[in-house]
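Reviewers asked in the last cycle whether our approach scales beyond single polypeptides. To address this, we selected a multi-component target totalling 225 residues and predicted its structure end to end. The input consisted of the following lines:
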Amino acid sequence: QQPVQSPQAVILREGEDAVINCSSSKALYSVHWYRQKHGEAPVFLMILLKGGEQKGHEKISASFNEKKQQSSLYLTASQLSYSGTYFCGTAKFQYGNQFYFGTGTSLTVIP
Amino acid sequence: DSGVTQTPKHLITATGQRVTLRCSPRSGDLSVYWYQQSLDQGLQFLIQYYNGEERAKGNILERFSAQQFPDLHSELNLSSLELGDSALYFCASSVRAGQNEKLFFGSGTQLSVL
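The resulting structure, written as structure tokens, was:
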């Protein structure tokens, strides 16, 4: 039931790019992305709806391929502030019940 | 500040005991979710309430129960505590209960069972 994310962890230098993938064995009706910094609560980044649209937040964007039941988060020109654990999330059912988060990807940006 | 309030921030108790975690959602939010996050683990969905009614259950143990009150605050009750229940418990709220509703998280309650 839980979406699977890859990679599990990634270390970047400032200015480098990264891609985080989220895939589900079940149909995805929408995909959320959240970031959790160490010792803090997860914070909403963006929602992607059906239609393969891309959304952006700062230099972070994402895509959603509903046919492949996958979403990818793109971080470009990474900054130190991007460090944290990224979670994708999706509802089990179309009408929103049982909201599950993915396995998480730890991102560390170093100077 | 997300507007979601969780109390207490920290709780230390012994095995076999019972505790209650409290969550006040953002003003106007009708839906409350509870999640458990163990050390280096992801966010495990426990239960969801919407406007006072249980909407969905996830991986919630029978020793755990929750409710949402008429003023929309929610409580998560954990009983017969075991060492493995030690975790960070988050609640989140959203305006409604749809798939497109973004979740706002409280700062969590860190539960330590000794």
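The interface with chain A takes residues 2, 33, 35, 42-43, 45, 48, 55-58, 90, 92, 96-108 of chain B (CB under 8 Å). We regard this as preliminary and will revisit it once experimental data from Aim 1 are available.
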